[in-house]
Amino acid sequence: MDTGMGIIFFSKDTKGLGKQLQNAIEERFLPEGIETYRNIQALLQRLREPCIRGRICVLFASNRRDLTEISAIEDLLSNLPVILVLPDKKKETVKKGHALCPRLLTYGESSVREVLPVLQKMMKIQVH
């Protein structure tokens, strides 16, 4: 199984900000190094596979239900670097997001602008 660098991208959003973020990531990084998941069951299955090291998770929660699903698999994310995009800035949403200990916590409207430079830096750090 591949143990190289890679990005695990999760977003149920196929038309809005989630899709914009996915497109931006695919433009910046090699598409073959990006695994995209549209449902939590597929992401869960991937995170349970061996050789997950070297992956960075970019998780886009387009609503609170998505965030709740992501929070439910918190234990599988604990050893991975995570970038989390929240649906809003409400106190309870932010608190739930921080519980996942992401390297970057951002919000939908600013996600593309903020995620790409952080992701690029994280990719460089993990290579060395």
Summarize the structure.
Helices cover 45% and strands 20% of the residues.
Q: Tally the helices: what do you get?
A: 6
Percentage of residues in DSSP E strands: 15-25%
Order of helices and strands: EHEHEHHEHEH
Major beta sheet summary = 5 strands, parallel
What average pLDDT do the residues reach? 91
Q: Briefly note the CATH topology name.
A: Rossmann fold
Compute the CA-based radius of gyration: 13 Å
Beta strand count: 5
Identify the strand order in the major beta sheet: 2-1-3-4-5
Return the structural class: alpha/beta
Q: Would you identify the regions where 5 or more consecutive residues have pLDDT less than 50?
A: none
List the domain count as a whole number.
1
User: Can you tell me the overall shape?
Assistant: globular
| Assigned CATH architecture | 3-Layer(aba) Sandwich
CATH-defined superfamily = Response regulator
Q: How helix-rich are the residues, as a percent range?
A: 40-55%
The top-level CATH class is Alpha Beta
Distance between the termini: 21 Å
